[in-house]
């Protein structure tokens, strides 16, 4: 049975008022099927993301629920089209390992780059002196005493 159908049945059977969380859906599917836990988690998360994207499911604050009213007809049409799609076939083991092999020479070059980058980064950091503050030293005079000799300041206080 497809994982999308299991998710829809899980949301219907759990009957949560605010919607079902990912953890509850995964727990329900784990009880209903014999699939391993890691595989179920990965497939459920991907199917929930796709379901929301295509409009089959609705999501609010991490809770998933089925659409209501006119949205149900639209979701059913999308779900039927989605069910007709062929399931993705797994690539063969030979095709997966073709470009992934690393020769010892490429490994050594990458290690050398990392080592060189670390050395240069540390030497630059050690050579820098701490930054001096540019602020002026604290003045002992207050702002009120600095206006004493200015005639404009005396005019303001006289009024």
Automatic annotation (TrEMBL):
- Residue spans of biased composition, Basic residues class: 108-117
Q: Where is the H15 domain?
A: 1-68
Compositional bias of type Polar residues: which residue ranges? 136-146
Q: Which domain of life is it from?
A: Eukaryota
InterPro entries linked to this entry: DUF4777 (IPR031957), Histone_H1/H5_H15 (IPR005818), WH-like_DNA-bd_sf (IPR036388), WH_DNA-bd_sf (IPR036390)
One biological process term in Gene Ontology:
nucleosome assembly
Annotated GO MF terms: DNA binding
Q: Which Pfam families match?
A: DUF4777
In this chain, the stretch annotated as Disordered covers 86-159
An example of a Gene Ontology cellular component annotation for this protein is: nucleosome
Task: Name the PROSITE patterns for this protein.
Answer: H15
The name of this protein is H15 domain-containing protein
């Amino acid at each position: 049975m497809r994982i999308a159908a299991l998710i829809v049945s899980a949301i219907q059977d759990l009957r949560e008022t605010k919607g079902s969380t990912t953890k509850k859906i995964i727990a329900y599917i784990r009880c209903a099927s014999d699939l391993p836990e890691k595989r179920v988690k990965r497939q459920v998360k991907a199917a929930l993301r796709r379901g929301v994207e295509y409009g089959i499911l609705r999501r609010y604050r991490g809770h998933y629920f089925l659409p209501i009213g006119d949205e149900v007809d639209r979701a059913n049409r999308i779900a039927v089209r989605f069910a007709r799609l062929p399931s993705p076939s797994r690539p063969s083991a030979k095709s997966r390992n073709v470009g992934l092999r690393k020769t010892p020479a490429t490994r050594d070059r990458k290690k050398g780059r990392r080592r060189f980058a670390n050395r240069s980064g540390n030497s630059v950091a050690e050579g820098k002196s701490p930054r001096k503050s540019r602020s002026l030293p604290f003045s002992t005079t207050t702002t009120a005493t600095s206006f004493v000799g200015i005639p404009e300041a005396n005019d303001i206080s006289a009024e």
